[in-house]
Amino acid sequence: MNLMTVSEVAEFLGVQDIRVERLERESLLLAKQKDDEGRPLFDAEDVKRYKTFAERIGGI
């Protein structure tokens, strides 16, 4: 499992960090674990699937 930080996910999705944190809070993008500072870490495959899904329904 390849984990991505909030910043990496934001760059991949083309959104701001705060948007990724909101997606996680709203359980639209699930974190696999938290880093030492309590920030979410995401599975790269889940992020790719989310991006594909979001594009199909009209955007992120």
From TrEMBL:
Pfam families: MerR_1
HTH merR-type domain sequence ranges: 4-51
Gene Ontology terms: biological process: regulation of DNA-templated transcription
MF annotations from Gene Ontology: DNA binding
Record InterPro entries: DNA-bd_dom_put_sf, MerR-type_HTH_dom
Segments traversing the membrane: none
Protein name (record): Helix-turn-helix domain-containing protein
Species whose genome carries this gene: Neptunicella marina
Organism classification: Bacteria, Pseudomonadati, Pseudomonadota, Gammaproteobacteria, Alteromonadales
